[in-house]
Amino acid sequence: MSEPGSSSAPPLKDPKLGAMSKAFARVDLDGHDLPPSPTPSSPRGGRQYSIATQLVFSEGNDQFNASSVPIYQSATFKQSSATGGASDYDYTRSGNPTRTHLEKHLAKIMRAQRALVVSSGMGALDVLTRQLRPGDEVVTGDDLYGGTNRLLKYLSTHGGIIVHHVDTTTPEKVQEVLNGKTAMVLLETPTNPLIKIVDIPTIAKMAHAASPSCIVSVDNTMLSPLLQNPLEMGADVVYESGTKYLSGHHDLMAGVLAVNDEALGDKLYFTINASGCGLAPFDCWLLMRGIKTLKVRMDAQQNNAMLIAQFLESAGFKVRYPGLKSHPQYDLFQSMARGPGAVLSFETGDIQLSERIVESAKLWAISVSFGCVNSLISMPCRMSHASIDAKTRKERGVPEDLIRLCVGIEDGEDLLDDLRSALVQAGAMNVTLDGIYAKSATVGNEHPEEGERLAADAAAINEP
Ligand SMILES: Cc1ncc(COP(=O)(O)O)c(C=O)c1O
Ligand SMILES: N[C@@H](CCSC[C@H](N)C(=O)O)C(=O)O
């Protein structure tokens, strides 16, 4: 096995076409080999580059040493002979130089042997779950992104897959359902939208002991490879939505899969090529550009998120954010991650009050998604998690009044002022004479029927 991150592009399976090991070889205009790039690709003096450097520094220049990777906007590639010759690429669904460049870069920062990019985060989960066969069992959480829940429900209804939703924050609950037929464990941590933490190393160990061929996968969307590396904690696959932190500007959809096992990587690549969901060259270029600023964006977003979380907590709201010491799994989180990210949620005790708060904010856009430079506010039960029916949401303890904040890079004080104004305008806080704000919301969901009606409408739309 080669060093993590040094894997070459997905090898073309047709031997006539050869492997892609020559991708980005430096050649002159006549096709003669040039000496290696003047920029060293390995750490100087044995010192590992820090992640901030790795995000920016990418290997594999084209023959003109372009500073920004060229967009190979071509569906097909000329071959040297009818039998294929030694071409590196034949067709963009099977492989494209811009995509190869991005995948190599991602493998390095995700500390993986191989990374693969597809058209969305759900596309990545689809590729992964296509490795399942009827009768296989999947163990997953009871707090999950709505789209993940929807795909798993579809697979259990139409694909003969048995899906166990358990409280993955309690490893004993996972142990209860693991067995020799467990083909996959799908973990999300922190969970969306309740920001619960799952013990990746413990569950990975348990799963492999119960079922050695079980694929332990982790959705790392909430933190990105900057803050958490599940492959180093026993996971077999990491997948994430590149639509979020990795790209950072809400200008593209993308999904990433990363593995260390060569055979599993080949199976995932086969599925991507066979089903045709590989990421388009222009989107690869955009994602590559976004990744370079991941650290500066995340640093700013985390600082702002901590400010907002502390303010809401001090105002008396029940806040869910792993950066707060009051988070029930603060210590576990510290043992796995290098930062809390910038998504938090809080309850007001009243659905209509939450709605007024969300609609009173000006700087915070009412929008699904997260990880963007802009700050967003949403009500998960009506928006990102509306595809989970109201009964299930209630059973799983997702409060209908929950507000989710996805904190951006704006000035922290501006964000705070705007949120504070929205809370006051909505009637969630009182301004006292000495200028202190006090929470006036009552605890207890006052209008559950309203949330259930809206959710039922949304669920009907989302049913296959
Ligand atoms: C945790 C999580 N995983 C996966 C996805 C799916 O990503 P995408 O929207 O890129 O398909 C999302 C959001 O959509 C998400 O929040
Ligand atoms: N209508 C979409 C909702 C996407 S939610 C996006 C993101 N994961 C979030 O949590 O905000 C759908 O039905 O998938």
Describe this structure in words.
- By secondary structure, the chain is α/β, with parallel strands linked by helices.
- The protein has a domain at 295-462: Aspartate Aminotransferase, domain 1 (Alpha-Beta Complex), CATH 3.90.1150.
- Helix content is 35%, strand content 13%.
- The strands form three sheets. A seven-stranded mixed beta sheet has the order 1-7-6-5-4-2-3, sandwiched between helices.
- Strand 4, helix 6 (200-210) and strand 5 form a beta-alpha-beta unit.
- Helix 2 runs parallel beside helix 9, helix 10 (294-314) runs parallel beside helix 14 and helix 12 (351-360) crosses helix 14 (412-426).
- The chain is globular and about 80 Å long.
- Bound molecules: pyridoxal-5'-phosphate and ligand LKTG3HHF.
- The ligand N[C@@H](CCSC[C@H](N)C(=O)O)C(=O)O is lined by residues 145, 147, 192, 368-370, 384, 387.
- It comes from Capronia epimyces CBS 606.96.
- InterPro entries: Cys/Met-Metab_PyrdxlP-dep_enz (IPR000277), Cys_b_lyase_euk (IPR006238), Cys_met_metab_PP (IPR054542), PyrdxlP-dep_Trfase (IPR015424), PyrdxlP-dep_Trfase_major (IPR015421), PyrdxlP-dep_Trfase_small (IPR015422).
- Keywords: Amino-acid biosynthesis, Lyase, Methionine biosynthesis, Pyridoxal phosphate.
- Its cofactor is pyridoxal 5'-phosphate.
- Its EC number is 4.4.1.13.
